Fold:
Amino acid sequence: MEEIIQHLTPLLRDVWGYIFPNEVELHWGLLIVLYPYLTGLVAGAFILASLVKVFNVKELQPTYRLAMLTALSFLLVAPLPLLAHLGHPERALEILVTPNSTSAMAMFGFVYAWYLMAVLCLEIWFEYRKDIIHWAEKEKGIKKWIHRAISLFSKDVSEASVKFDKKWVKIITIIGIPSAFLLHGYVGFIFGSIKANPWWSSVLMPIVFLFSAIVSGIGMVLIIYMIVTPFRGKTLDIACLDKLASFLFYVMIIDFTLESLDFIHRVYESEESIKILAYLVSDKLFVSLVVIQVIMGMLIPLGMIAVMKIMKSPAELKKMIYFIAAILVEIGIFTTRWNIVIGGQLFSKSFRGLTVYKMTFFGLEGLLAGLAILALPFVILFVLTKLLPPWEEAKTN
Amino acid sequence: MKNFLSKIPEQVKRLSVLLVIIVIGFVVVTSYLVPKDFGVLGHYRASAVQSNANKEMHYAGQELCASCHEDILKTKMQGYHKNLSCEVCHGPSLKHTDEPDQFKPNKPRDRKFCPICHEYNPSRPTGFPQITSASHNQRKICVTCHNPHNPTPPQTPKECEACHGEIARTKSFSAHADIPCTRCHEASEKHKLMPREYLPTKPVKREFCGGCHATDAKSAPEIPRIDLATHEPRYVCWQCHYPHLPEAK
Amino acid sequence: MEKNVIELNKKVERRSFLKKLAVFALAPLTVRILAQDEKFKKVKKWILDNGYVPSDHKWGMGIDISKCIGCGRCADACKNENNVPRDPFFFRTWVERYRIFENGDIKVDSPNGSIDGFENIPAKEKILRSFFVPKICNHCENPPCVQVCPVGATFKSEDGVVLVDSDYCVGCRYCIQACPYGARFLHPVKHTAEKCTFCYQRIVNDKLPACVEVCPTQARIFGELNKKASPLVRFLRMNKIGVLKPSLNTEPKVYYANLDMEVK
Structure:
């Protein structure tokens, strides 16, 4: 109680114009920024993986399993910021037990469970089953038992059963693409369906979320692939990198087009809220939206990749440019989430004033906790790569 | 049958077992965790209505006060505060109805209390009695002159300003500052005691303003003149000019 | 739970349009089933411990802006009655002051939700018009907060009052985001959503909500919406009525008389 008051009191001085008295406290902070960012990475990484299986993009084969594991490790962490931000985390199960059918948020549990169990885990299971059985045969001790348990004590590695696995990986991927769209489109819907908030309320919100998710997912797999491969003493597959960068480029163009459309539409329709939103963009969000999200996170990386595509460049330069572009894209997409979640709460629903968001350092909603949550998927990914090595050489025949 | 079972791939059998366990687990947990009264009236716990109704009350309400303090209510009903609930000034007093001796309601005597409602503020509706406390009997507390249960002042106010603060203030900035209210309004003495029953008069004709502003009026030469015959003959003066601030655009 | 239900031998009243539609569409099949149903089905009514039957009432509030003097007694009484934290960040009701200046500027303020009063600072610009507006949960007939609550912890009771189940609320704050009126906040100690309940503990006991009880100028009127004679119905008959943000189709049950276009 005291803590909240101490946090809120100085904010009163920074309020501009008139906001409703209950609006001084900004309710969805850094943790809720992380949530769409993390689920976006999941959806994006999965779409990337599906390119290999469904659309037969052979060049991306080296990143297929890595993308799947990346998606899984981010998905496992995705509900954590939500849980940590609840006023009563111990009541979280109510969302599964008595879900309100009219609430976009209540569907979270089901969309999440479907995606985790029916798509990601199942696909990984079918993909890895044969290898796991082979690994378990050679191993001893605890690792053998973990692998046996993961394979559900399966033993059949006959040609027919491996063929069955392959067929199902493809089927699940086909189901998985709309599921990934659902997972992230639905996160966009959580915001896009709030009619009280003109910054959020947009029919394009789910689809903008989706494409920015694919952008961030491809970028993240590219970064992980480029960091991990040299560490393992292997060489980067430049054809694979080119393909990743190409897909990144195309999806970024779609994403940028959609975001521009949304922006132009708002300005052209110029509804009641336009004055306060214009002030929001030109003042509070100028750095994070115009400078970081659009220029640094979108236009510069687009330009960088475009130059690499037009001109013949040495592989080393390409790698460096791709890497920098991917890092910029990740920062850009993070600020996209920031600008939506935080930006949507900075202006009053009276359309007459702006409030401020001051992040704390410590505490559950603080920067430290946020960084910890952001780092956690990488830890999980590290463990997963030990348990289910996604590398080519680990495959058994 | 056995033939059919053996045709099912091994993976499907193992996954089916897992699926069945998960589904059964979910169903069992759900049936255990859903509150019994959930969904009886709608998608909520019906008992939540009762728990909202069970919250503790703090205000007794005027009817309850009246059941003991009939005399005060009688006084109050004759004055301007007749519609005022007791607890506006005396604060939440439900406890007082349970333990009349232990818990005594507030009796605000501070000069700051009455101005919460009666201090002049231009946003307040016209006609609501407002004072400027800085110039209103500065050293006395309100209750020395006004009985809060019947606040009509013992002496009727000499000046219109005592009640019509907003108009007086506006007029004091205007070219009409020096004109007394009574030049335009005739107010009977009874208006001071029963203001709504005995309303002051208002001018009704253009010629009234023309008394000073017509081209042929016998008034000071610096007063602006107007030709009543040609100047917007369709309107009466106060449809465009606010008499208490005629300069207003 | 059983004690909370009274059974009345009465025909089932089918109010829902959708239900009617379904009956119409599946007429041949449903007529027989429902005909039987109506004979035997008993209407159940939920009843509170003190005998109050929520479904017999429908509450609403009227606010006459031209009567409000901005004294803030309503906001103060609300905090007293409902144990709302006294800090200036938590309000179930508050009063706003609007000042519209001759040069077109509009200033709105509500220092401490009006509890400490409004300072009379003479502005440089001249005021064109000025007034006070009490704000409160609108108890929407079509409440966006109830629509988005993931667990059913906030709901529209049968008497039209939008309530919160604080023992069930998970504290996700989606309802706070969805409310167009800023009428909700998160209780800093309980960590659950809070809002105006029309002083539910009072209205089920035939008392007025605290803000209505203490309003010195009767700017607030409380009463039944579906009875022929109630102070509120009279208010609705005598005044031209407006509601806040009608374009959002929330269908508020807090009705304003003499509402200004600048009020949002």
